[in-house]
Write a structure and sequence with these properties.
By secondary structure, this protein is α/β, with parallel strands linked by helices. The chain has one domain: P-loop containing nucleotide triphosphate hydrolases (Rossmann fold). It is 46% helix and 17% strand. It has a five-stranded parallel sheet, with helices on both faces. Strands 6-5-7 form a three-stranded antiparallel sheet. Helix 1 packs across helix 8 and helix 2 crosses helix 3. The longest helix has 25 residues. The mean pLDDT is 93. Bound molecules: adenosine monophosphate.
Length: 218
């Protein structure tokens, strides 16, 4: 059983690296942001509660975030473990998490703020199947269309200059201290996130003393 938390500023590749790691090790990838986005897209009651907050780049209330995490982990479908991305994001969430779950390692994807804007503003998502693209590093074959399902590529509602500035500010104010706390308590592995996807994955696996991946392509 492997239980990891993955940290990093917006655009550091948390989702991408968590997916690669999970796919290869049969871990469950739990992205709190993805769960909230699913609720917004599907017009659920929770979606209605969080939509505006998310679009503004602010943090959803702790009770809602903790509820989502608890409900997801309570499914106990993670026989081989999990990678949790986007949680905990502040001191209270960290306290809740440490009280309820023990983790093996914390992965920190280290990206300078100067690189964040360039990456995030180039990010696109397929509106139909959710596949990620990036107009710098991973362009679709046909402009604006998903290579996999032909769906329309859109920007996340919170990938705007304004919301991004707020998300970065909150990250440094509230999430940086959580990382510092984990550094004192747990085994934190910091990896330079400026490299390409494959190199970052290789480096973090080496740092976690994991075997070479079964699946080679990103
Ligand atoms: P992410 O995809 O991780 O960037 O998350 C997108 C948005 O979802 C954030 O900007 C928040 O509005 C909300 N969110 C995700 N995780 C949390 C969390 N742990 N606590 C509060 N809000 C969250």
């Amino acid at each position: 059983m492997r239980k990891y938390v993955i940290f990093g500023v917006q655009g550091s590749g948390k989702g991408t690296q968590a997916k690669l790691l999970s796919r290869d090790l049969d871990l469950v990838h739990i992205s709190v942001g993805d769960i909230f986005r699913w609720h917004v897209q599907n017009h659920t009651k929770l979606g209605a509660q969080v939509r505006r907050i998310m679009a503004a780049g602010e943090l959803v209330g702790d009770d809602l975030a903790e509820g989502v995490v608890r409900e997801r982990l309570d499914l106990h479908d993670w026989n081989y473990g999990f990678v949790i991305d986007g949680f905990p994001r502040n001191a209270r969430q960290a306290e809740f998490f440490l009280e309820s779950y023990d983790i093996d390692s914390v992965i920190h994807l280290d990206l300078p703020d100067g690189e964040v804007r360039r990456r995030v503003l180039a990010r696109r998502l397929c509106a139909r199947c959710g596949m990620d693209y990036n107009l710098i590093a991973h362009r679709p074959e046909e402009e604006g269309r998903c290579d996999v399902c032909g769906g329309e590529l859109v920007a996340r509602e919170d990938d705007t200059e304004e919301a991004l500035a707020e998300r970065l500010r909150i990250y440094h104010e509230k999430t940086d201290p959580v990382l510092a706390l984990f550094r004192r308590k747990e085994f934190v592995v910091s990896v330079d996130a400026r490299a390409d996807i494959g190199t970052v994955q290789k480096n973090l696996r080496e740092r976690l003393a994991l075997p070479a991946p079964r699946v080679s392509e990103p």
